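[step 3/7] inverse_fold.run input=structure_tokens len=152
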């Protein structure tokens, strides 16, 4: 019996569910190996609540779609975008948390878009963290990408 016949016989002895599970397992293993090579970068962006109507139901505003797409594009090039509070939580103060993440990153991407409304509780158009986070990246000597959007 040739090796091709053996392979054909082996693959037909599994049910469709078993073959599908094996495919998922192989994909998961591949994804785990790919994750090892992802480079952590800090992704600084404003609160998405200031970029359009409060509910997070599609259709999103152009600004929200831009932030989401930027996040996905960063991931596509094997970078691992990290931000607070969405992906990392530390038990320290907010500034210490940001410093910890920025210090353990290899770069920083910052997006500043014109908000639709002031930051909740402050009445200010922008959060002070939109200045602090890129400044920390500069202080630590990280490579930085700054995007400023005005018209959407």
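[step 3/7] decode complete -> sequence:
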């Amino acid at each position: 019996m040739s090796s091709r016949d053996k392979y054909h016989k082996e693959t037909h002895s599994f049910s469709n569910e078993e073959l599908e599970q094996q495919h998922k397992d192989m994909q998961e293993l591949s994804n785990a190996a790919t994750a090892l090579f992802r480079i952590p970068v800090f992704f600084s962006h404003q609160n998405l609540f200031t970029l359009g109507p409060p509910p997070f139901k599609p259709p999103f505003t152009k600004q929200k779609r831009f932030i989401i797409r930027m996040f996905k594009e960063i991931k596509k090039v094997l970078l691992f975008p990290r931000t607070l509070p969405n992906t990392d939580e530390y038990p320290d103060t907010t500034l210490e948390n940001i410093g910890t993440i920025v210090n353990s990153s290899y770069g920083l991407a910052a997006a500043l878009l014109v908000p639709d409304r002031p930051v909740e509780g402050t009445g200010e158009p922008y959060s002070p963290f939109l200045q602090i986070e890129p400044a920390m990246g500069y202080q630590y000597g990280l490579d930085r990408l700054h995007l400023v959007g005005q018209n959407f």
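[step 4/7] annotate
Residues 16-35 form the longest helix (20 residues).
DSSP finds five helices and four strands in the chain.
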